[in-house]
Amino acid sequence: LVAAARRGRVRLPAGAREVLGWSEQRLLEATPPDQVMMLGDPQYPPQLGQLPDAPDVLFVQGSIPPEPMVAVVGTRTCTGYGRQVAGAIGRASAGAGWPVVSGLARGIDGAAHRGSLAAGAIPGVAVLGTGLDLVYPAEHADLAQALIRDGGAVVTEYPPGTRPDGWRFPPRNRVISGLASAVVVVEAPVKGGSLITAAHALDHGRPLFAVPGDIDRDTSRGCNMLIRDGAAPVLDIEDLITGLSFVLGPPPAAERSVSVHVVTEAVGSGGCSVDDLAMRLALPVPELLTLIAHAESAGEVTVENGWIERR
Prior knowledge:
The protein is an alpha/beta fold. The chain is built from 15 helices and twelve strands. It is globular, with a radius of gyration of 21 Å.
C-alpha cells in the first residue's frame, strides 16, 4: 500500500502524500507507540495474527478486548427492520460477554455498534478502511470515540492520512472476519462487502450465521443465499445466542455474573415475561429457566404463565 501510494497509484491529499514520502521507519516513529501493533508483537490479536493474510501493521486507538468477538455486518442501505435486528444482536452479543466487531459503516454496522454500546456490558471494535485520523463516514466519529471511551478500540491497517477510497474496504473486511470468532450477516444484497466478509469467514474457518428475509427483497437475497449454502439461520435473538454458545462456549457474562440475585434484579419492579428476561440477560431460555426456578425456591420471584414478578 505504501509503495503504491508513493508511485502515485493511490489518490491522497498533499499532506498524506508528503507523509508517505517518509521511510516506513519514520512513518512508524511519527505514530504514537501505543497506536502501533506489529505482526508478531505480544499484543497483536492472536486470532488475526494466525491468518496468512494478516496485516503486517495495525494502527489502533483504544484496547482490543481479549474475549472472543462476534462480527455483525450488513448493507449500508438496510431496512428499518434490519437496523432493529442489528441493534438487538449487538446488545445481546455484548450483553452475553462477546464484544461486537464491525466496520463502522452506515446501516447495519452502525446499528450493531450502537446496540453493543447500549448493552453497557463490554466494549467493541470498529475496523476502518481509512487512517485513524480520518473516520469514515464522518457522522460516525462520535460513535468511534464512544467505543474507545467505553474501553474498546478503533483499528485499521492503513497509515495516517489514508482516504476512504472504495477499493480499500474489501481488504478491510478480512480484518473484521480475522478478529472475530463468529460472523453474523444481518442484511446483504448478492453483491457487496457483507458477502466478501462472509467469504473471508469461510476461508478463516469462522462459524457463519445469517438472518433470513423476504425472498423478493434485494437486501435479503445475499443472506438467503448464505443460508442455502450452509450458513446457520438466525430465527430470533435467543436462537442466535444459543447457536453462538455451541460454537464459542458458554456466554462469558453468564459465567461471570449471572446469579439468582442478578435474575431477580433484572425482572424489575413491574415484572416481565421469560422471553423479555432472556433478552435482557442474553441467556438461552433453558439456562434462564433453571435460574428462575432457583429464584422462585428462594422466595425472590413468583412465576405464572410465563410472567415473572419480584416478591
